[in-house]
Amino acid sequence: MPLQRRAFIKKAALGAALAVPAIESLTKSDILVKSALAATVPTWTARASQDPGSSGSGSITPGIQQVVNGTNAQGIVITPTDINRMWILTITDNGISQPVTNQWGMTYQLNNVTTDHNVVVFFFAEF
Questions:
Q1: C-alpha torsion sign, points 126, 83, 65, 68
Q2: Domain span including residue 86
Q3: Rg, Å, the chain Cα set
Q4: Same domain as 23, residue 71
Q5: pLDDT score recorded for residue 55
Q6: pTM of the predicted protein model
Q7: 1: CB partners within 8 A, 6+ apart
Q8: How far apart are the first and last CA of the chain?
Q9: How do the pLDDT tens digits run along the chain, 127 residues long?
Q10: Is the dihedral of CA 56, 59, 60, 65 positive or negative?
């Protein structure tokens, strides 16, 4: 026996679209297929880490995050451990050098994400 589901049919009225409820018959397999298709929104992984060759150290948060296709990632906060003798020397995103806007701490932003990102930070320490 088919299951009933509300669907919406667009109807123009006074130049604007209105949603008018309609009834659509679906089988259980139709529902499973439509649910699977709706659940396949692409997501990407943004990873951020310290370059293992860094002479300094610091914090990078978040280290990993999932980002929905076409949206902005949460800002990656980069902070040297000791700003009196350490600073951010370089940032690369998928191997491409990015500007360091503040060597004593900054937020790196990924906008309109449409692929995986690997952000690597090199901290320099002066001894």
A1: negative
A2: 43-125
A3: 24
A4: no
A5: 94
A6: 0.68
A7: none
A8: 76
A9: 444 444 443 443 334 444 444 455 656 655 555 555 455 778 999 999 999 999 999 999 999 999 999 999 999 999 999 988 999 999 999 999 999 999 999 999 999 999 999 999 999 998 7
A10: positive
Residues making up the chain, counted from first to last:
127
Question: Strand 58-61 relative to strand 76-80: parallel, antiparallel, unpaired?
Answer: antiparallel
Question: 18 with 72, same domain?
Answer: no
User: What integer pLDDT is reported at residue 53 of this predicted model?
Assistant: 94
* Residues 78 and 31 both lie in one domain: no
CB atoms within 10 A of CB 76: 23
Residues 27-61 as b/e (b if ≥16 CB within 10 A, e otherwise) read eeeeeeeeeeeeeeeeebebebebeeebebebebe
